[in-house]
Amino acid sequence: MENLKSKRKVLRTAVSKLFTRIENEIKNTNVNKCSLEESLKLLTVKAEELTKLDLQIEELLDSDSFEAEFEASQDYAERINIWQFRAERKLNELTGSSESMNDNKQVVRLPKLTIPKFNGDSLYWNSFWNSFRVAIHDNTSLSKVEKFNYLRSYLSANALSAVEGFSISDENYDSVVEILKNRFGRRDIIIHAHMNKLLNLAPVHRSDDIVKLRHLYDTLEIQVRSLKSLDVKTRSL
């Protein structure tokens, strides 16, 4: 396990450098669109590699150390999501929302690069399911057994445990999808998860701490946008 943790440390360092690279590109008055797209793609690939390492480490942990490790990996995953959000927001400004949507549709057809693993956190259910649905679930060229195999490969932690007892078969695929939707994808559960995230935001105690203020703003904006997409009225937040 120590070797895996060493690999993860190196990978996290590489990801942190990408954070800095993206930040510098966004701050540049003459933003290089191609360079920013390249950085975002690299971050997506590195994030997938990091998720796989986290999963391998989690499988070797005992119950006493699992929670701390899991929380740390989720915190880092959140940082990745925030920088992906910032990069995508800047690219939208540069290329227009319609072109960005077309780019995203092309990207999600490459599941190995774009479908994130789902660990059972309802905050990320819609993002996971929308990507999986377009790339795999609605793909008529795949059998249900093939779809089931893909689905299991993209589940980890609590999400994987929820369907662990099902054998790979055509009949069980639909049942597993319904279980995942009911347990992690119900509208009320997702709204509750986003509201909890808002209520538990860490306060920023210094008005000159630009980094923490920016992190707070981006996290807040992500949660509010997600709630609006679920038809939660702004005045009720």
Residue-averaged pLDDT, rounded? 81
**Roughly what fraction of the amino acids lie in strands?**
under 5%
First-to-last CA distance: 43 Å
Low-confidence stretches: 107-113
Count structural domains.
3
Please estimate the helix content: over 70%
What form results from the Cα inertia axes? globular
Spatial extent as radius of gyration: 19 Å
Helix vs. strand class: mainly alpha
Major beta-sheet overview: none
Plain-language structure description:
By secondary structure, this protein is mostly helical. The protein folds into three domains: 1-94; 122-185, no CATH class; 188-230. It has helices spanning 2-27, 33-60, 63-95, 97-107, 111-114, 125-137, 144-153, 157-162, 170-184, 187-199, 210-229. The longest helix has 33 residues, at 63-95. It starts with a helix and ends in an 8-residue tail after the last helix. Residues 107-113 have low confidence and may be disordered.
List the helices and strands and how they pair.
Elements: H1 2-27, H2 33-60, H3 63-95, H4 97-107, H5 111-114, H6 125-137, H7 144-153, H8 157-162, H9 170-184, H10 187-199, H11 210-229
Give the tags.
237 residues, mainly alpha, 3 domains, 11 helices
In short:
InterPro entries: DUF1759. With 237 residues, the protein is mainly alpha-helical.
